[in-house]
């Protein structure tokens, strides 16, 4: 295998099985240095397993992968020196305070005691966690925990960061904060491999996306290409006067087509994935005298992407690997 | 001339200060990799912090040993040795051994509990000595062993136990027991990584540690036992450890016993420490 220095990750034919379940079934990835690469897929598609292989936590059954030119099996130590992992279960110690967590990681990475403390202070301030620094992490909110988790990943700024569903379960405000932090990381030159179930998240952050289903890459491209191939976003309009809905229907049918009359008697939507066309249609509604309460252009959901790409909706596979959080009690 | 638009910039809804985040990201260089020992000590520090935050967890290394000393001394003293005072002289070093060895089971339970937390993934993805998290946590646990042992000796002294070799003898005996416990802990950390739940580790651990401690000379002189049992008791390293501890406390320890105890501890560490590390890294 030749090393391509422009690539942060170069994976070929990665395979991992857990018992009879083939969690990852031949995944190839090529992630450019300095980019954000999104892996999009439902629970159990094999995203986490792929990340865990690349982060050297588990060995692939077959295939090879290079991280900055280092083989993940043969040179796992070099790989570990370049990457940071932010797991689906927040990878911080719940029984310690936020501050202690950051000092712990700093010390383990080789910072002297004073330097580790100073770095912890700097990160706690930057991530808005100063007030909570001496609370135990188990008492943190989901958003705070995520921020601490990411802060712990950049105690020494990594060259490559794995983010496994960084916003799953967060409220919109916390989600926006996490997105802001990710953008700041990218601006600093860190390469990011992002796992997500949300097309919107991949669209907001990623330069390239691989759609994963049943352990395979089923589509790959830029967010724009992917959305174009899926096509079916929707313009949703809510009218001030339900009486005007037939008129609005006529206008939108002419402009966009594929009208859906919603259960709400004042609302309807039309198929549209292009913002310019949506703007034109809204202007046309206004010209025709339709009074609009509000309108929105929504992107296709993960389900729609899957429907378009595979002909079936995104299925949740119950577990892609033994979940370390769930203990099986012996009977 | 174009008019300057009066657009306001939407404030980013954030507690995290993006400028500060950018600065923090830009401001580090990777320090040289720390040596194995300092990494292990950092993990030991983590163990200390946990005790600091949840001091109740020390109950099983303080209250339980006190109960053992009181129960065994007053329950069996008269029957086994004719008087509680005479029995205390015989049994105290033995109870020291037993109590500290019981605590080693908790090292395995604690490791198993740790594995259910996401933080282990972070530790495993750090560029550090692979055994550091394990060596560190057992070093941290050694503090618990020392504490349990000290409690026993102090209670014994309160009840009238007077070791011939005085404080130095007691300290040496405690030291020897803790070194052996360090070696034995690796057996239970291995178990902690093989079994699925903390409860299973606890059950299996005590199923092993009970016979090994009771079928020794901790409680009774082996020559009172049936021949087969006596044979086992005489080769049980826990007997050797109890004999050596008594010897150190009384100032007449047999060097051979001490060497045997240290050799067994070293052997357990050599076999089970690498095994634990492999299991831990495999995840």
In a nutshell, what does this entry contain?
Helices cover 35% and strands 26% of the residues of chain A.
Secondary-structure map with pairings?
The complex is a heterodimer of chains A (331) and B (283).
Chain A: E1 7-18, E2 21-32, E3 36-40, H1 47-54, E4 62-67, E5 70-71, H2 76-82, E6 83-86, H3 98-108, H4 113-126, H5 142-153, E7 160-164, H6 172-187, E8 191-196, H7 199-205, E9 208-213, E10 216-221, H8 223-230, E11 234-239, H9 245-255, E12 259-261, E13 267-271, H10 275-287, E14 292-298, H11 302-310
Parallel strand pairs in A: 3-8, 3-9, 6-7, 7-8
Antiparallel strand pairs in A: 1-2, 1-4, 4-5, 9-10, 11-13, 11-14, 12-13
Chain B: H1 18-26, H2 36-53, H3 59-81, H4 84-115, H5 119-124, H6 132-159, H7 166-194, H8 198-214, H9 227-235, H10 237-250, H11 255-282
Helix pairs in contact in B: 2-6, 3-4, 3-6, 4-6, 4-7, 4-8, 4-10, 6-7, 7-10, 7-11, 10-11
What does this structure look like?
The complex is a heterodimer of chains A (331) and B (283). Chain A folds into two domains: 7-228 and 308-326, 3-Layer(aba) Sandwich (Rossmann fold); 232-292. Helices cover 35% and strands 26% of the residues of chain A. Chain A is built from eleven helices and 14 strands. In chain B, helix 2 (36-53) packs across helix 6 (132-159), helix 4 (84-115) packs across helix 10 (237-250) and helix 10 (237-250) packs across helix 11 (255-282). Chain B has one domain (35-282). In chain B, 75% of the residues lie in helices and 0% in strands. Chains A and B meet through helix 2, strand 6, helix 3, helix 4 and helix 6 of A and helix 1, helix 2, helix 5 and helix 8 of B.
């Amino acid at each position: 295998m030749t090393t391509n220095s422009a690539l942060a990750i170069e994976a070929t034919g990665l395979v991992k099985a857990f018992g009879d379940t083939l969690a990852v079934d031949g995944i190839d990835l090529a992630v450019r240095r300095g980019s954000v690469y999104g892996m999009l897929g439902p629970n159990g598609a094999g995203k986490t397993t792929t990340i865990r292989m690349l982060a050297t936590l588990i060995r692939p059954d077959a295939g090879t992968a290079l991280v900055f030119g280092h083989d993940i099996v043969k040179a796992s130590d070099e790989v570990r020196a370049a990457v940071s992992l932010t797991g689906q279960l927040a990878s911080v110690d719940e029984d310690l305070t936020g501050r202690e967590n950051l000092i712990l990681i700093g010390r383990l990475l080789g910072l002297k005691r004073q330097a580790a403390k100073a770095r912890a202070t700097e990160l706690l301030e930057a991530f808005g966690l100063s007030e909570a620094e001496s609370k135990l992490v188990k008492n943190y909110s989901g958003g705070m925990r995520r921020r601490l988790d990411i802060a712990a990943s950049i105690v020494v700024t990594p060259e490559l960061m794995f983010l496994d569903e960084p916003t799953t379960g967060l409220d919109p405000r916390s989600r926006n904060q996490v997105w802001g932090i990710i953008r700041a990381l990218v601006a600093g030159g860190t390469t990011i491999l992002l796992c997500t179930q949300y097309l919107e998240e991949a669209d907001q952050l990623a330069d390239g996306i691989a759609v994963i289903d049943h352990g395979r890459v089923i589509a790959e491209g830029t967010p724009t290409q992917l959305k174009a191939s899926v096509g079916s976003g929707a313009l949703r309009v809510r009218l001030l006067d339900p009486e005007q809905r037939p008129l609005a229907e006529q206008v939108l049918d002419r402009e966009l087509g594929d009208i859906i009359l919603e259960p709400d008697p004042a609302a309807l939507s039309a198929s549209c994935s292009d913002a310019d066309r949506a703007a034109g249609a809204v202007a046309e509604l206004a010209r025709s005298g339709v009074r609009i309460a509000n309108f929105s252009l929504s992107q296709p959901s993960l389900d729609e992407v899957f429907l378009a790409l595979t002909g079936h909706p995104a299925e949740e596979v119950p577990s892609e690997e033994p979940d370390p959080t769930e203990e099986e009690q012996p009977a | 001339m174009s008019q300057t638009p009066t657009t306001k910039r939407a404030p980013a809804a954030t507690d995290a200060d993006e400028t500060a985040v950018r600065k923090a990201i830009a401001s580090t260089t990777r320090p040289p990799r720390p040596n194995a020992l300092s990494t292990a000590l950092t993990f030991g520090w983590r163990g200390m912090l946990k005790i600091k935050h949840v001091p109740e967890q020390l109950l099983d290394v303080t209250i339980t040993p006190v109960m053992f000393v009181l129960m065994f001394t007053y329950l069996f003293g008269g029957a086994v040795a004719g008087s509680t005072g005479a029995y205390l002289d015989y049994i105290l070093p033995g109870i020291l051994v037993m109590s500290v060895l019981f605590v080693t089971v908790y090292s395995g339970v604690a490791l198993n509990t740790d594995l259910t937390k996401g933080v282990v993934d972070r530790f495993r993805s750090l560029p550090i000595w692979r055994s550091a998290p394990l060596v560190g946590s057992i070093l941290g646990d050694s503090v618990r062993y020392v504490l349990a042992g000290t409690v026993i000796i102090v209670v014994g002294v309160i009840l009238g136990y007077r070791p011939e070799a005085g404080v130095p003898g007691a300290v040496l005996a405690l030291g020897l027991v803790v070194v052996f416990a360090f070696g034995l802990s690796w057996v239970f950390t291995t178990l902690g990584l093989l079994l699925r739940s903390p409860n299973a580790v606890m059950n299996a651990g005590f199923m092993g540690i009970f016979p090994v401690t009771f079928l020794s000379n901790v409680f009774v002189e082996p020559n009172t036992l049936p021949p087969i049992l006596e044979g086992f008791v005489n080769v049980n390293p826990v007997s050797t450890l109890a004999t050596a501890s008594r010897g150190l406390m009384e100032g007449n320890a047999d060097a051979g016993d001490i060497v045997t105890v240290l050799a067994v501890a070293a052997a357990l560490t050599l076999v089970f420490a690498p095994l634990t590390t492999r299991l831990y890294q495999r995840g």
